[in-house]
């Protein structure tokens, strides 16, 4: 109709033209927003130091990869270097130096992972090279609805311009046909926009900037892998049909590991079904492996081994006494591997620990300059129990500056009774557990004065608990003993 009613043709055409341009430009703008960026934290126990890395994944196809290095714990002097490398190859560019101290001071370096596929972030301290696997995704193909918008809009605009040509306006039938073509094209474009998936524009949101020095958001971070694709390259087997199997961990110390001396503990991960090296761990709760090393003296080391080769990890430990040490490795495999705890043990030479008195139960004890009050009701096997710790500082002031650690305000690790009725890290009958504080952070992003943990003790007996929080970039560990009573016999 526009084409045949001459006085109205121009105005009508102008409206259609503007609509066409709007339809043409809108999808182009949203397509440009689909640059995937993920941010992931990972904690490394690298030699004698502890580093928290915040990695911003490069965009699809590869590019800049900023990494913020935050030393915490007991940071020894010396720098670390970081580089982006292809697995099995040397650095793509010169390694970048980041200071390994002082604690709590973040330092950003920018690496470049220039290409699609498997990469590693190599973090070296001069003795050990930690290799964090990442994957750079290929650019996503343009969705079909975007093509529909583009083709429909181009068709509509071209037909409309042709219909307005002076020579065509003299031929009403041709102008009518071109006008109809313009309407069809624009209808296609408008329909495609209207029916586009609602998530298209938000499918790959730009990650919010993360302050690596700030405490993570409160609550349970879950066991998701996070935005950064962080699986190592080669699955141990074809997971498409049966899913990944249980991980078997073997531990090996340096020759002649002795009490009182640091030793590197190497861990080999193999698939229990295939025997192949397991190299598909995902980052969960800010680490590839959460490792608890529990000594015969009842001490806990909660560390995060670094990956040095496919399926091989290493962490430095310093056993205080001789004897058998229990090793508990928490991890998640890609796919449907779920959360797994694999356990093993290693022996350390030297004098055995004297009979260590059990840690106190409920009540107040001084730990790392704070008063830690443990609140633990009488526990009964099979019933949920809440164990809480309230921290107070000098002068009795409540401690409210606990920092989030591994995405949580606090962690509780525990070891249950073995066959002898007491916690025994070398006895597989001793149940191992790891529970998170579920409280949210305060307005300042910190936690405290109280952290609390809910746990159902599976059976009666003596349990060793360790409550862990972070303050001033140091981990405070509060050992607690809980004696669990047997469940009452069911009434007939
Ligand atoms: Cu951990």
Structure commentary:
It is a single chain. This protein is α+β, with helices and mostly antiparallel strands and 492 residues long. The protein folds into four domains: 83 residues; 97 residues, Sandwich (Immunoglobulin-like); 110 residues, Macroglobulin (MG2) domain (Immunoglobulin-like); 123 residues, Macroglobulin (MG2) domain (Immunoglobulin-like). The chain is 16% helix and 36% strand. Strands 11, 12, 13, 16 and 17 form a five-stranded antiparallel β-sheet that branches. A five-stranded mixed β-sheet has the order 20-26-25-22-23, with no helix packed on it. A hairpin with a 6-residue loop joins strand 2 and strand 3. Helix 2 runs antiparallel to helix 4. The protein is elongated and about 105 Å long. The N and C termini lie far apart (88 Å). Bound molecules: copper (II) ion.
